[in-house]
Design a protein that fits this description.
With about 220 residues, this protein is an alpha+beta fold. It has one domain: Pili subunits (Roll). It has 1 helix and 11 strands, in the order αβββββββββββ. It has a 5-stranded antiparallel sheet, covered by helices on one side. It has a 4-stranded antiparallel sheet with strand order 9-8-10-11, covered by helices on one side. A hairpin with a 5-residue loop joins β8 and β9. The longest helix is centred in the N-terminal third of the chain and has 54 residues. The chain is elongated and about 105 Å long.
Length: about 220
């Protein structure tokens, strides 16, 4: 009986140590790949959030420009119908925060699009309210509203620390309230609004203090 010796050139399998080393290296590569993918996804989410934030800020400024650029000299009646409210009205609020939904700015604007052909005016009464760090825009379906009219609200910008407003009068001086003190509305009930209730400032300066972008100042001209 003859014995056959195995040749040294015959192929052999991996040892247990070699398999463990290979698995360890593979695990490291997978971990590095997962970390890279996770970082890419996190960066993408942050970029999308920044883009949405910047878009909200740009949209807010565009809406400001549209409303102020089409301000119309049309006063409106108070909801109960006994007094008139000026065509453009800017209030002063402590630290820029309004209380109980009080509007910082209320104005009548023209150019209200009506693609559906609804029987209504192209003038629109709008207000801006700053409450709990959120700036929102409000408008109504009619100019001379009543208590039964529904208010349409739209949140424009969040994470707002404060908002300050100034108005340029006819002598090109900045004032903090509109109408100015000499022409402020009194709670009287004339049959028709007087000339002082139709006055608008020459320009409006809006100063926003945001949590992320800091202080932003814009001046909007108002056509006369």
């Amino acid at each position: 009986m003859t014995l056959k010796l195995h040749s040294r050139n015959c192929p052999r399998g991996f040892t247990l140590v070699e398999l463990l080393v290979a698995l360890f290296i593979t695990a490291i590569l997978f971990a590095m790949g997962y970390g890279a993918i996770n970082q890419v996804l996190a960066n993408r989410g942050a970029i999308e959030e920044q883009q949405a934030r910047l878009l909200a800020l740009q949209t807010t400024m565009r809406i400001f420009a549209q409303d102020f650029g089409q301000a119309a000299p049309r006063p409106v009646r108070e909801p109960i119908g006994d007094t008139w409210q000026s065509a453009f009205r800017g209030e002063v609020a402590a630290l820029g925060q309004t209380q109980s939904g009080q509007a910082l700015i209320s104005l009548t604007r023209a150019g209200w699009a009506n693609p559906a052909g609804i029987q209504r005016s192209t003038l629109q009464r709008v207000s801006y309210v700053f409450e709990n760090g959120v700036l929102r825009r409000e408008h109504w379906p009619v100019l001379d509203t009543t208590l039964a009219n529904k208010t349409t609200r739209r949140e424009l910008l969040s994470r707002v620390r404060s908002i300050a407003l100034r108005y340029m009068d006819g002598s090109r001086q900045w004032v903090e309230r509109w109408p100015i003190q000499g022409a402020q509305l009194q709670n009287v009930s004339p049959p028709q609004p007087d000339a002082s209730q139709r006055q608008r400032p020459l320009a409006v300066e809006v100063t926003l203090e945001l949590e992320d972008y800091g202080r932003i100042v814009r001046i909007f001209e108002i056509p006369q």
